[in-house]
Amino acid sequence: MLKLNYTAKGFSPDLGGRLNGSHSIDDITWAELIWAGITVGRKSWEDVIRHGYHSFLEIIYRTAILKANLSLSPQGEFIKTDAYKSLDPSEKSAISYFLGLSFAKLVAHRLLSVPWLVHLDCFSDLPIDLKGKNRPDLIGTNLSREWCVFEAKGRTHSIAEKLIQKAKGQAQMIKSINGKTPHIKGVSLSHFSSSKLRLYLEGSGEINSDAVDLKIPNGEDQFLESYCQPFMSLIENSTATTRKTGVVRMRGREINFVNLEEVDLDVGLDSQVQEILTSEYRAENALRSIYYLCSQYPPEFAVSTKAHSGNNDTTFIGWDGVFVLPGPSWI
């Protein structure tokens, strides 16, 4: 198992003791980190996936970034690879930002029960005050259908107090989403200390004086459809690329998956989630049905399970219904 050390402060005590103080998550797997990396979404995916094969490339690209730039210490902690160390500063900046997004998604799911996180750019007609740099990266919902706001950053070296305050200010720029005050607003900053990856988390419940009310057109249905669309496209276009496909049955769930041999990975989506989103009644029932479906997963289902092949590989299925199985090269 992989290990992630983090420090957290400023969150409500109601969210649990693991969100204040220094802690570690000791049972992460590559499958879980890949899941986080390929599911933290952005609107440009919708344009890319219209062309079929490119939906595969996007997921392959994100997975390859993780594999090329992160390795493990003898203690199981994430460390920089030599490939990462050899990058020039601008290249490191892009990679560290993606790592920041990926680990923000991982801890939001693990510690806050937030399976769905999407870039703010996914939504059109943003208020003018949210179109510049002074805005948060991500919004999402938890299993109780409460909105959450996160600002994610990644750095190659240490993080300064000035950066923390800037991130908090960005998270505080949203006053409400569709008329509801966000349940959680926070920042997640990943960085390397002595070549080992660390995470800093801080709650940010305050509201800026110029904070805005965000209205998502078509409500939460559009949010969820934007999130799941890349994986639906991946499965629907698999026959056009002659890729290996299959069905996994685990704990009463049925998962349709596609093999991405370029990165030694199977990726799939819960068949019931896929069916709901493609039904003619999805506009009325999709969100309610998917929230109910995903909330029925036992907690351990959303962590690691025995691989369907019966070997010692690890499988991860998030509460969002997205399935990831890395092959032997990840062990």
Overall spatial form: globular
Q: What oligomeric assembly is this protein in? A: single chain
Q: What is the topology, as strand order, of the major beta sheet?
A: 2-1-10-9-7-6-5
Number of helices: 9
Strand content range: 25-35%
**What's the average pLDDT?**
81
Low-confidence stretches: 43-51, 305-313
Number of strands: 17
SSE series: EEHHHEEHHEEEHEEEEHEEEHHEEE
Helix and strand content put the structural class at alpha+beta
Rg calc: 19 Å
Topology of this protein?
Elements: E1 2-9, E2 21-28, H1 30-39, H2 44-49, H3 53-69, E3 70-72, E4 78-80, H4 82-85, H5 89-112, E5 116-119, E6 138-141, E7 147-154, H6 161-171, E8 174-177, E9 184-193, E10 196-203, E11 212-214, H7 219-236, E12 245-250, E13 253-260, E14 265-270, H8 271-278, H9 282-295, E15 304-306, E16 314-317, E17 322-326
Parallel strand pairs: 1-10, 7-9, 8-11
Antiparallel strand pairs: 1-2, 3-4, 5-6, 6-7, 9-10, 12-13, 13-14, 14-17, 15-16, 16-17
Helix pairs in contact: 1-3, 1-5, 8-9
Question: How would you describe the overall organization of this protein?
Answer:
The protein has helices at residues 30-39, 44-49, 53-69, 82-85, 89-112, 161-171, 219-236, 271-278, 282-295, and strands spanning 2-9, 21-28, 70-72, 78-80, 116-119, 138-141, 147-154, 174-177, 184-193, 196-203, 212-214, 245-250, 253-260, 265-270, 304-306, 314-317, 322-326. The protein has 331 residues and is α+β, with helices and mostly antiparallel strands. The protein has 2 domains: 2-218, no CATH class; 221-330, no CATH class. A 7-stranded mixed beta sheet has the order 2-1-10-9-7-6-5. Strands 12-13-14-17-16-15 form a 6-stranded antiparallel beta sheet. β13 (253-260) and β14 (265-270) form a beta hairpin. α1 (30-39) crosses α3 (53-69), α1 (30-39) packs across α5 (89-112) and α8 runs antiparallel to α9 (282-295). The longest helix is centred in the first third of the chain and has 24 residues, at 89-112. The radius of gyration is 19 Å and the shape is globular. Residues 43-51 and 305-313 have low confidence and may be disordered.
